[in-house]
Amino acid sequence: MTSSASVAGRHATDPPPHILVVRNDKLGDFMLAWPALACLKAAAPEARVSVLVPSYTAPLARLCPWIDEVILDPGSRAGQAAQRQLLARLRRERFTAMLTLFSTPRTGWLGWRAGIPQRLAPATKWAQLFYNHRVVQRRSRSAKPEYLYNVELAEALLRVLGRSPQPRPTPPYWPLAPEVVQSRRQSLVDELGFDAGRPWLFLHAGSGGSAVNLTPTRYADLATAVDSRLADAAIRPQWLLTAGPGEEPAALELRDSLAIRGLSAALLPARESLAEFALTLAAADLFIAGSTGPLHIAGCLNRPTAGFYPARRSATPLRWQTCNDETRRLAFSPPQEAGESDMAAIDLEAAADGISALVRRRAVAASAS
């Protein structure tokens, strides 16, 4: 039901707003847009929300409960014919407003040429000239999580549309019915022979080419340390190694390294699609990875996460924080005196302590429920 506050500044007979949200870059960035999408739907449930995304993230966009329509962006390298088709599509849709979460001159130009009356984006670079509403954020300072910057932009757009932002939605931003999660877990029991009574720790050693990560050897050190701590507590975990396209060699290297140390780990067989891979992550009791797309999928699902980040200002644990509940989130990075990308400087013993303590707490809570 729409609150009286949300209709202030508009007539009851006004048509529902049609909002275009642009997040047409990488997977992790797109997953961190889901809180903003949830924010829009909370304040304007009758609004039609479309997203402009690349074909790579489109399968996940189609699963997002806050999205009504997916529009494929052919990208800046596509030919003129494809660009004209996209522009014609945007014009046909007759959008009320456009919310650009990551601004580039091309997307700003598209919104302006499409005649979208209300266009809002961060006030960065000269691309902001294409927008009639701009919000100063200074994201390069990394003072807030990326998903919170996105939420603030969504709230600003709602005010432009005469809506009062509602209390901010809380995790999970990708809610799944319990039976869906149970089905995913049962699939792994059937496929890999997993014991449903033990904690399942997923480990993703790939980087997707966009994030500095631990080496497979360092991940093997970490897994060995975590396993020994949990074995001492009689909570022996099961390890599942995940990999994206082209990352299988790193996962195989990690599996072999763990085997040498006497630790058995299964390799997740390739899934038929990114959407199937993402839904499999709902079965994890803990997901361990660098600051990559899969880590942010797990966060959006509100699965417990342990992320490894460089100390680089633009890639800090705060800026690229997962959007799961605070009690389910761990982050590790090099000390200040180390090089900003010196992942070897991360204290793996401290990381193993934190991860094993989180797994123990959740195991105790599960046994008490």
UniProtKB/TrEMBL annotation:
Protein name, UniProt field: Glycosyltransferase family 9 protein
Annotated organism of origin: Billgrantia sulfidoxydans
UniProt-listed PANTHER family: GLYCOSYLTRANSFERASE HI_0523-RELATED, TETRAACYLDISACCHARIDE 4'-KINASE-RELATED
Record key words, sorted: Glycosyltransferase, Transferase
CDD domains cross-referenced by the UniProt entry: GT9_LPS_heptosyltransferase
Gene3D superfamilies with a match to the protein in the record: Glycogen Phosphorylase B
Keyword Glycosyltransferase found: yes
